[in-house]
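Project standup — Tuesday

K.O.: blocked on the structure for the chain from last sprint. Re-posting the sequence here as requested.
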Amino acid sequence: MTLHGAVLARDALPQLGRVFGSGTPTRPWNDGLQLLRYTRGVSLPPILLGTSSFTASGWAGSFYPKGMRPADYLSFYAEHFPAVEVDSTFYACPAVQTVSNWAARTPEGFTFAVKVPQAITHEKALAGCDAELTEFLKTMDILGAKLGPICLPVPLLQ
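H.V.: unblocked you, prediction finished:
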């Protein structure tokens, strides 16, 4: 749990039902959204060191070797860190080809933490977003065993 959101993990949000694993939701959402069950087992070390992006301005020439093509950043990053949070998924669900490329450019055992898009969390406030959530989860499923935490950033409630 963070100040502005939560990480969806096995049984982390029982009030929303069991998003991961088997079982039925303990409390339905107001709009009748049926929670999708995510059944892949999760067996990760308790702490993975990574950054909130693998592409940041200023990293070329400091972290990434001078002259390295941006298309090679993720592969290089994955040689030095076991995980990354993909902040860009908050702004839009990435294309299937993009996620396929992420999976192909990282070694077995690498972990991606992704954010649920703001169209779901902020614009629709988790209501009436069945299609968007389904598209996002199906797209992220391309990562297979490399998919780690799914972060659910929620706006500040006042």
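K.O.: great, moving the ticket to review. The first helix runs from residue 73 to 80. The radius of gyration is 16 Å.
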